[in-house]
Every structure is written in structure tokens, then in C-alpha cells.
Amino acid sequence: QLQLVESGxxxxxxxxxxxxxxxxxxxxxxxxxxxWFRQAPGKEREGVSCISSSGGSTAYADSVKGRxxxxxxxxxxxxxxxxxxxxxxxTAVYYCAAGLISCTYLSALAPIVYDYWGQGTQVTVSS
Length: 127
Known about the structure:
Blueprint: E1 4-7, E2 10-12, E3 18-24, E4 33-39, E5 46-51, E6 58-60, E7 68-73, E8 78-83, E9 92-99, E10 116-117, E11 121-125
Parallel strand pairs: 2-11
Antiparallel strand pairs: 1-3, 3-8, 4-5, 4-9, 5-6, 7-8, 9-10, 9-11
């Protein structure tokens, strides 16, 4: 069973950048699409991005397009979320999740299609 672990969160000023990582130390992520999600206090979990198993296909929420980029290094069994031009409204707990899906699906950013989840990492954007 996959055990995903996120890292890289923290406190950053508006306009700053962070890079999150998602890794599984036990199982090969090569076959899985990886989604990034976030959840702010009092809000529903929101899909941020999806990257296909090969890394050749991605999808992003409108709220992060042009600012966030997902990539993966299958040799390191690691998926990244590069977040630039961060805004206070990006503040949330960020989760990665794995699923046997295509990022071209209309549901690619829906939490329900993912089978395995990490514990999350806090991102706070504040001056």
C-alpha cells in the first residue's frame, strides 16, 4: 500500500515561492497519476493539479494556472509542486494523492478518484 509523505511547506510572504515534494519510500509511483489538493480551514478540499504517471500530461485549477507547476522525477520516486507568486488565499494544508487515472479526465481534480493520500503539509502565505 502506498504511503505518501509531503514536505516543503512553511511560511512565505506574498509573492514568494515554495516547492512541495511528495514521496513514497516503499512503493513505486511510476504507474500512478499524482494529484495535489489543498484545504483551508472551513473550506472543502480543492483540487490544485494533476500530473500523469509519465509526467507528460498535467491539469491545473484555474486559480493556480500560470503560478503553480507540477513535475515528477520517477527515478527519485518523487513528485513536486512548484508554487510561485503565492497569495494569502493560497494558505492551506496541501496534500498529494495517487490514483490510477488520466489527468485528461474531467474528474482529474476531484478527490474521490484518488485512492492514496498523504498527511499534508501546511503552507501559510502572510506578511
